[in-house]
Amino acid sequence: MRVSQYILSLLFVAGLCLLGSMVWRVGVTDLLTSFQAVGLWIVPWIMLESIPVLCHTAGWAACFSTGHPAVSFWRLCLVRLAGSAINQVTPTAALGGEVVKVVLLESTMPREHATAAVIIGKASFTIAQIMHFALGTLYLTSRLQLPAELRWSLVLTLSLIALGLVGFVAFQRYGLLSHVLQWLSGYNMAPRHLQRWRQQLLPLEAQMTAYYTTHPWRFVRSLGWHFVAFACGNVQNYLLLRLLLGTQAPGLPDAIMVTVTSGILDQMFFLVPGGLGTFEGIRSTMLATVGVAQVYGLAFGLLSRLQIMVWNGLGLLAYAWHTHTTKRQDTLRRVDAGAGHSLP
């Protein structure tokens, strides 16, 4: 644990130094001038993130087995905000927040139902993200004169990722993981542990198999909602560039290219806490390829960071509120149960 903490601390300091060097290079005065070009328009631009948030929530809501989840849409939105905030502020490769979602949903539905919805939702979200990346990459390769080797390597990488995601969904749909554990136990590889894990896994697999069997089109609807949310991110970045540069801003196709390439590169630096420094550096570098000056590229990265911080803050508040509400409800149930036992 200490080694991992030292590594994270080192990465945090390195990211902070990188961000500081970029600010020093462009100059604080020029950076503040670029912020003034945006002015108070930054407020409605930050609130524009509510559209992707609602679309992602609608995509997740379609991953529950029944027509409507056991919680309201707005509470589901708060749970998703909380999980996304945990994913953003912790270097857990976007997995820590999924555990938080299950924990927050356990007070309203069985754990198997909550876990199945979270796993299916993660698959839907990731597939839609890869679709967005794939379309953006196709545009990138068609616009830039890339070497044939690099072009084929990009196609091969995306194909392997897509194949892995198809396999992930197949494991959910047909309950293959329990069969794998059963097969492994036959080779005397810790058979007791494997059988115990298999028995614990069977109810979860039953939930996921029932979802894909009974509601196949709901998964397609979920993909659609998530893809719309990612497409909204392209428009948001285009609008921010317009606020920063006015009529000199790159067009929507360039904004899409920057969004896609930045999103892909962000995945490579997930260990850096909050992507400090790397987040801004990636966007500044990508914008430089389309002719945007470094000061505006850095301003774009910092304003994008501000938007993420605001919504992560809302997510952490949602997590605190949901946790407090759940504890209070549990306390009231225990009090009521105790009062019931004390009656003659």
Walk me through the topology.
Blueprint: H1 2-26, H2 28-38, H3 42-47, H4 50-61, H5 73-89, H6 96-105, H7 111-143, H8 148-174, H9 176-185, H10 191-214, H11 216-245, H12 252-268, H13 278-288, H14 294-342
Helix pairs in contact: 2-11, 2-14, 4-5, 4-7, 4-11, 5-6, 5-14, 6-7, 7-8, 7-10, 7-11, 7-12, 9-10, 11-12, 11-14, 12-13, 13-14
Summarize the structure.
The protein has 344 residues and is mostly helical. Helix content is 82%, strand content 0%.
Explain this structure to me?
The chain is mainly alpha-helical and 344 residues long. Helices cover 82% and strands 0% of the residues. The chain is built from 14 helices and no strands. The chain is globular and about 65 Å long. The mean pLDDT is 80.
Helix-and-strand structural type:
mainly alpha
Tell me the quaternary state: single chain
The parts where pLDDT drops under 50 for at least 5 residues are none
How many structurally independent domains?
1
Average pLDDT number? 80
Helices and strands, in N-to-C order?
A: HHHHHHHHHHHHHH
Helix content: over 70%
Terminal residue distance: 53 Å
- Gyration radius, to the nearest Å? 23 Å
Shape field: globular
Which band does the percent of strand residues land in? under 5%
Q: Profile the largest sheet.
A: none
Q: What's the tally of helices?
A: 14
Say how many strands there are. 0
